[in-house]
Specification:
single chain; about 210 residues; alpha/beta; nine-stranded mixed sheet; 6 helices; globular; binds uracil
Length: about 210
Amino acid sequence: MSKVTIMDHPLIIHKISLIRDKKTGSKEFRELVKEIAMLMCYEATRDLPLKEIEIETPICSTKTKVVSGKTLALIPILRAGLGMVDGMLSLIPSAKVGHIGLYRDPETFKAVKYFCKLPKDIEKRDIIVLDPMLATGSSAISAITFLKEEGCAGSIKLMCLCAAPEGVKAMQEAHPDVDIFVGALDEKLNDHKYIVPGLGDAGDRIFGTK
Ligand code: URA
């Protein structure tokens, strides 16, 4: 079974409280999402492999460590996942970014794919899928199923700001190999499959479309 890591850092908890507030406007919302993604990136990359290198400091030569290989890909699920990309790239600027566009059919609540552009060597890369809201899990599950069908053989992690227990359970059942990094684990889904208490429609709040 996959590991679920729920963020317990006070700064992440604080910033998630701010984005929950309906009075927080789009500009501030976007900045906070970027900052939360950056802080969560630190947790989600904790297991990156290191290699030893030799360098010269101004004082002497020394052996030291750097991240080995540059093999990460970030895959935001359009459109809300875009809000998390800049924060992630500020810590891992060499990551390649692919995009998967999915929308939620309002009647069936199922994810429908309408766009996909992935780095050409995606099958060799370790992947972090970005989706701020893990509600039913349907979008993230479909995106990850698709990535596996494309031959992705590296590790796949999912990062979301806010999750419902229903979404976490569905994701763990569908993809038990995918570790999940959650900013906050909320109570439940409502009848419209929105997360309660949640923060509303993440895409609308990031892009100011409502
Ligand atoms: N997508 C959102 O943006 N918010 C939710 O609460 C659920 C799905």
